[in-house]
Amino acid sequence: MVRLTSLVHSSGCAAKLSPKDLEKVLKQIPLMEDDHLIEGFEHNDDALVYDIGDGRVIIETVDFFPPMVDDPYIFGQIAAANALSDIYAMGAEPKLAMNLMCFPSCLDLDVMKEILLGGHDKVKEAGAVIAGGHTISDREPKYGLAVTGFAKKDSVWLNSGLCIGDVLVFTKKIGVGIVNTAAKVDEADKESLDDAVLSMTTLNKRARDSAKGLNVHAATDVTGFSMLGHLREMAVASGKSLRISYSGIGKIKGAEELARFGFIPEGAYNNRDFIAYDVQFSGDIRREEEDLLFDPETSGGLILSMSEGDAEIYLKRMEGTAASIIGRVEERKDKSVFIES
Prior knowledge:
With 341 residues, this protein is α/β, with parallel strands linked by helices. Helix content is 34%, strand content 25%. Strand 1 (37-39) and strand 2 form a beta hairpin.
């Protein structure tokens, strides 16, 4: 069987356009205004929020990418989990989804079936339904979802609500982009690959559900623009600064060592080029540690800003996962993010 990763130039969320190029274009596109549109793309939030006028809002998002693994069923699971994540990152519940599929004519149709089955099973696990979609012929396989969720208007999590004194909880590990890059040339061991796949296929449903009854002031998920990219978006949108402890962040097994050997995806360099000026590293942070923080993640975890007391309750509910406190929210300083060992 053809290795799916051999058909693509880049994979997963590492295939995203350079954030610098994207920002340059979007600045030239006028914002479309509507009295019911609560959140569009102006704050780089995870999904749009539209007030339907009865105390509820619709949350909508779309995400698709090339494969980062060779197993088509697992690829389908990862792509679906990644798309669903944006809904969870807004504190909402996904309900409806539609498939997006680009498929090469050189591949057996059983490969398409397995990709779609992987997406189907992950959406079913989320308690949502897939009801259609769109396919086109393409030289590179790509798959993802357009997803619609619902929430009460006053319960939506935005990335702009950071409060001074809050702690930041992160619910997964970082480093999947680096492991996936090494895997394309057979340099990632089974333990690292298994850890990365487990992280990418895990829904953020439990991470969202475990915050019920707690006061989440701001939230986002970590995907292609990296841990630092999404932290910076929260800081800029909220007018605050963040102090992050590198040691508190979970890492995919073997990711640091692979980064030290130079298995860095192109997206990590794009992320560094875009935001490095707004990040300050303490002198004891090594280059490979910086690279992990700029790594384009796929189906990454949630970052939640909440009081320390609520964070303690949350971590008890998330026992057995990688969830941990990674930093604090501070008054705005000359940089958006400060990284300490």
